[in-house]
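agent> Task received from the user: take the single chain below, predict its 3D structure, and emit structure tokens. No templates, no multimer pairing.
agent> Plan: (1) validate residues, (2) run structure prediction, (3) serialize to tokens, (4) report one or two observations.
agent> Step 1 OK, no nonstandard residues flagged.
tool_call: predict_structure(input=
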Amino acid sequence: MADARPISRWRWTDVRQPLRFINLEEKTMKSRKPPVLAAAVLSASLGFTATACDAQVYPSKTIRMVVPIGAGGGTDSMARLIAQRLSEQLGVTIFVENRPGAGTVIGTEYFSKTTPDGYTLMTVAPEFSIQPNLRKLPYDPIKDFSFITQLTSGQYFLTTHPTVPVKTVQQFLALAKARPGQITFGSSGNGSANHLAGVMLQHMTGTKMIHVPYKSAGPAGAALIGGEIDFMFSNVASAIAHVRSGRLRAIASTGPKRTPVAPEVPTIAESAVPGFVVTGFFIMMAPAGTPREIIAKLNAESVKALQSTALKERLATLGLEPVGNSPEAATTFIQGEIAKWAPVVKAAGAKND
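)
tool_result: status=success, residues=353
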């Protein structure tokens, strides 16, 4: 029999029409989506559903708050304050993990590579926006992170050990000029805000002082209290208790106006160095790629925490003003801070020691 074909694959057409064959496998395949495409569509659908579900039940386990500075400084204190409040509101444990080193770069690089699921967060200070102007970083300071909110704004004290024979900025500068290269100042690390503040002061006053970097503000503050260094630009939040106890002397503040927590302390700008202003901030962030629903929830809970009477009162005693802006505003703020520090670093000749 001529032209016989397997019945399982071929069938005859209507006998009244010209004789032809139809391949049933080809017809079936045309009606089917390619398996790879179908799998991709299913995977995307399941991924979207999983993300939405995860955001709805978030948080369901312990959250880690990374601090790229050692324990005892202002950033560490702020991280613990907001972690405690968020823990109460969200009903989960939030623990602080300090990862200091290289002016916050070590901890920040580590954080940038963590899973973006909302269970690893980080609190940073001005060092985060200064570092891009000092060195080539192993991460992108904008693209590798999702900013949740600016927690607070604040300033620094120019603090000295009580044995240093000065009580005003004018007396301090006179002493520095009389002893060039002998006055020492500590910081929380190379490229930190208090390091850069010291460099700026020298640049603007024509003085020469010796920088002594520490791993974090905590050890630097301890060294100042112990008389190992002469002065330091101390975060108001971490220094105010020591100033009130007499273990440190605050001779000036670095803001554009006096801090409400110590209105008797004049600013450096009004005292002797017009234009000298260094302000601080704390920002909470997540790794890039964290679901928007989770970022939105963390933002709402953070704003709620910052507006609570208990936390507002606590921040006030530390000389900090709550902010609680949107993720978009926090991102814009950081971009502005990075741009702001660039000419300052260049003009002051600041570099990593």
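agent> Step 4: summary for the user.
The first strand starts at residue 10 and ends at 12.
agent> Done.
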